[in-house]
Design brief:
- The complex is a heterotrimer of chains A (313), B (250) and C (96).
- With 313 residues, chain A is mostly helical.
- Chain A has 13 helices and 2 strands, in the order ααααααααααββααα.
- Chain A has a two-stranded antiparallel ribbon.
- In chain A, strand 1 and strand 2 form a beta hairpin.
- Chain B is mainly alpha-helical and 250 residues long.
- Chain B has a single domain, classed as Ferritin (Up-down Bundle), CATH 1.20.1260.
- In chain B, 64% of the residues lie in helices and 0% in strands.
- The longest helix of chain B has 29 residues.
- Chain C is 22% helix and 21% strand.
- In chain C, a hairpin with a 7-residue loop joins strand 1 and strand 2.
- Chain C starts with 8 loop residues before the first strand and ends in a 19-residue tail after the last helix.
- The mean pLDDT of chain C is 90.
- The chains are: A mainly alpha (313), B mainly alpha (250), C alpha+beta (96).
- Chains in contact: A-B, A-C, B-C.
Chain lengths: 313, 250, 96
Amino acid sequence: MDDKELQNRFQAQVDAEIKIEPKDWMPDAYRKTLIRQMSQHAHSEIVGMLPEGNWVTRAPTLKRKAILLAKIQDEGGHGLYLYSAAETLGISREEMIEALHSGKAKYSSVFNYPTLNWADIGAIGWLVDGAAIMNQVALMRTSYGPYSRGMVRICKEESFHQRQGFDILYTLSRGSAEQKAMAQDALNRWWWPSIMMFGPHDSESTHSSQSMKWKIKRKSNDELRQDFIDATVPQAEVLGLSLPDPELKWNEERQHYDFGEINWEEFWSVVKGNGPCNRERLAARRKAYDEGAWVREAASAYAKKKKEQTIAG
Amino acid sequence: MNNKAMLFDYVLHLADNQVIMAQRLSELCGHGPALEQDIAITNISLDLIGQARLLFQYAGKLDGRDEDQLAFLRDVHEFRNVLLVEQPNHDFAHVIVRQYLFDEFNFLNYQALCQSKDEDLAAIATKALMEVKYHRRFSRNWMLRLGDGTAISRQKMQDALNDLWSYPGEFFEMTGGEEILAKAGIAADVASMKPTWLANVTQTVKEASLVIPEGDWHQTGGKKGIHSEHLGHILAEMQFLQRAYPGQTW
Amino acid sequence: MSTNQDWPLWEVFIAAKRGLSHKHVGSLHAADSEMALENARDVYTRRKEGESLWVVQSKYIFASNPEENDAFFEPAKNKVYRHPTFYELPDEVKKM
């Protein structure tokens, strides 16, 4: 079969909703796009452990500490599932991590914002995980089998993440004036970064249309963003907290919420590395990896020794 | 001290051991040497928080305070944990050695407590023992891997063992109250566990190509509320919200 | 970067309950089989997903080639007589 025929057969398979599996022929660009997207997704899970980890030692009760720890651990697990799924495409975890550490690979910019008070943990769960779930639910139907299966597992596990975040904010919003102020402050800082998580407008998004055609992406950035806002605004009302967008208003005609324009200058600036915590986040990841090198090496050496002993014995 | 006060003190000692160790391990979440080990260490931390909660809840039944008042509103001198668990995460070798020395003890201690005449304690110990059995397996395997891995890893492990060796001696010292409770079949007789603990540890250390440090002097004080400087910092961090915003619901 | 830090990839199989077959759930990295088992326990059974674990190094799995799917799997499709529904039973026979 020549390249054109392979391409056609591949696209026909995708169009017929038949999953693509690791050993199937796939266009190089499909493979590259998947590696980029999946590794970026994995990196986001791993870097995302840091802002929440910032509060794990200061969680206000033992129950909250356990929940938060379990939740952050889940993110680590999700990163692991995604790295493994990406490895089926012929790239190693080390190569992906290397790309993250060198700044070549991106991760979700939202994790470059600081967690300044306890309510930020609630806001991350409710808004950041809420936004991530919107995206991930759509990705359960993505065309690449290992990615799709990873997403199914992740979505199942993530279902408590958003709720625990909302629960934190709900408790604070019914607490003292200080606690309520904490919660409002967190929303003020996390709302816009969460909305930005869906990426640039469809008209500006470089990879979008091809990804949609390949069914790597199942819904566009703007569609997902609108879904998220529509789902979230009524929940904010339950909390009795306000969202920091004066243009946010129900549009009867569209049957959707209208909302204000994102500060795209800030968005691109953070993507390019100039957010409040970009340098710290990467430094923390590099440090953990570098300081773990002797541990990984020792375990490999030990495994090799044991294997040789078994063979000799 | 009456019986109730002695029991309260003893249960707090058990709870404090778990909660402070869990707190130390939770500092590592997101910073482990490999993703898989990050997840594994967090599992241990979660188990220990679970054990601490059960123990604090039981202590609270004797005293009227709830688990969070006990964990977040006591000062350094009121904590009864052994000194080993508050030692810092200097590097992964220290984390593993600290864990292993503690796990061997925690295992023996819970095993004995399964037979306690105090039904609540026995029930908690039975549940905890399953968890600690796995912790010990995990930390023991890592003792072997890192001890018998590379020259660098062996050196780091030996350094960690040397640094931490003065702490476990305290595990086997009994307070007055503990002795009375042990005679009554309620507390575990930790003094009698030392030979078994030492034999197990010696075996592992040997298998890991490491050597037991010389000298039998050991640090003491944790069980009586006299701690290392580290605990104050741990508590300052851990208790921050409860101290800064007293009496609120979280 | 030194490559001797890199742990090989393992595939993880879990039996949800005793008596059920082991199902593939995902993969992970580990230096040796013991570690692979422990990592599988810590990564894949955090929510009581199973009661038995298998791990096997990914490189030992030999997979069929999708290019040969026609030759491999088509022939089985036209042997309908291997399935009980192929046979019509006389009404008098209620169960078989």
